[in-house]
Amino acid sequence: MRALLASILALLTMTSVAQAGDLTVSVRDTGGRPVRDAVVTVRPDAGVPRGPIRFSWPLRIAQRDVQFQPYVLIAPVGATVSFPNLDRVRHHVYSFSRGNRFEIELFGQDQTRTHAFTTVGTAALGCNIHDQMLAYVRVVDTPWAAKTDATGDVTLVGIPAGPARLVVWHPRLNVRGNESAYTLTIGTGPGRQTMTGDFSARAAVR
User: Fold this and answer.
1) In a domain, 1, yes or no
2) 100-147 pLDDT, tens per residue?
3) Which end of the chain is more exposed for a tag (fewer CB within 10 A), N or C?
4) Do 41 and 142 contact (CB within 8 A), yes or no?
C-alpha cells in the first residue's frame, strides 16, 4: 500500500511539473532599446497557490547617497518592507499613493523603519526633505513576478500551463496606470513574449 501511495504521489508530482512552463518577456521602447526595471507579472486564470508569497530578494529600500536603492522593489501584498537610512542626513519617507499611503517621519543614520504594504498596486515613494529622491514599491498578489534587467529581459519559471494574464508595469510607461495587460496561454515549455511601448511618461510621486 505504501509503495502504491508513493507511486501515485510521484506521478502527481511529475504531472504537475510537466504542466508548467517558463516565460521570458522582453520589454523595449519604441526605438527598440531595452527597458530596465519593468515589473512583469503573470497570474494564471486557474489562480495562484495558497499561502504566503516569498521572493528571493530582500524586502528593503535603503537610503544611500541621498537616493532610494533599489529604484523599483517588488513586494508581496501584506509584506513588511524595511527602510534603513545609510546616509549621514535624516530622511522623511512618504507615499501618497491610493491604498498604500503612509509616512515615516524623520529618522537618522543607521536607523531603520518599516511599513507593511496591504494593497495590490503601486506605491510611489518620496522624501519630504530631498525632493530628488524617488522610488516605487510594486505590490503584487502572484508569485510569478520579477523585473527586467539591463537587457530588458526577465524570465518567470514554473508557471502553470493554460490561460493567464500578463501585466507589464513601469513608472515611465505612458499609458493609464503605467501598465499594459495582455492575455496569453502558457505552454509546457519555454515561451517568449516581447512588449514594446512608449516610455516617455514623467516619473513622479503621486
Assistant:
1) no
2) 999 999 999 999 999 999 999 999 999 999 999 999 999 999 999 999
3) N
4) yes
Q: Do 121 and 152 share a domain, yes or no?
A: no
DSSP code of 203? P
- Cβ neighbors of 30 (< 8 A, separation 6 or more) are 196, 197, 198
| Cα distances (angstroms) measured from residue 16 to each of 9, 10, 12, 156, 162 | 11, 10, 6, 17, 12
> Do 80 and 107 share a domain, yes or no?
yes
Q: 133 with 118, same domain? A: yes
> Could you give the CA distance from residue 175 to residue 102 in angstroms, rounded to a whole number?
25
Contact by Cβ (8 Å): 137, 119: no
Comparing CA positions, the residue from 189, 180, 163 lying closest to residue 28 is: 180
